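User: Show me a protein chain along with its predicted structure.
Assistant: Here is one chain, sequence first, then structure tokens.
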Amino acid sequence: MTGATWGLVASTFAASFVEFVEALTIVLAMGVTRGWRSALAGTLAALVALTAFTAAAGYALSTWLPESLLQLVVGTLLLIFGLQWLRKAVLRSSGLKAMHDEEEEYATQTAAARQAARQSRFGIDTFAFVVSFKGVFLEGVEVVFVVITFGLSAANMPAAIGGAAAAGILVLLAGLILHRPLAAIPENALKYGVGLLLASFGAYWAVEGLGVFTHSGESLEWPGGDWAILALIACWLLISRVLVRYLPRLKPQSTHLKPETVR
């Protein structure tokens, strides 16, 4: 595989891994406190809905848009998405935002599950089903977004799907073996790295897509080709480290920050 393909696989793997870890925490909390049948039913229903959503979104984007406009649209969306992740990572690294804590999230979810009233339909606990469905679907939509944007822009859907699938299998196996949240995973560092990758690939494809406004309508070419992605990663990293260093000087730090439970 080429360097660009490895970068594509690594990006979809890392982004998907983070989302799968957060979905696993929610499903574990519901399964342990309310019953695995309801939690797994909600998870399965979310996967079915995600499959339909993926097919519809992928078909619409790949069929209705020319290549350069597709790159512009998905590149811009990916850039915005990546900058959101990078913004949170910078705030966490600078101490201006509390770190995300899967153990704290798990405790919050289990506490809410124990306090909720029990209502069952067809032998399925409604609360566990809805919470599991919502958690898996919302986290899954982000995975689908990353896979589709990366896969279509790079014209390599198999690599994008493979990276996400590998992440999902790894998280699932870890959950089955450990039966607890994957709190030992350096999730905040992963999100920082993913933010850099998403912002870099997004900027790369968005600029290429500006060719839609030229007379030929064909995609623009970056100097150095795919190597420009490394330069973009270095630029975003430099900007983010400068912000991490100087942002605390602009805003007084809180005396105490509780672990973040909601991204």
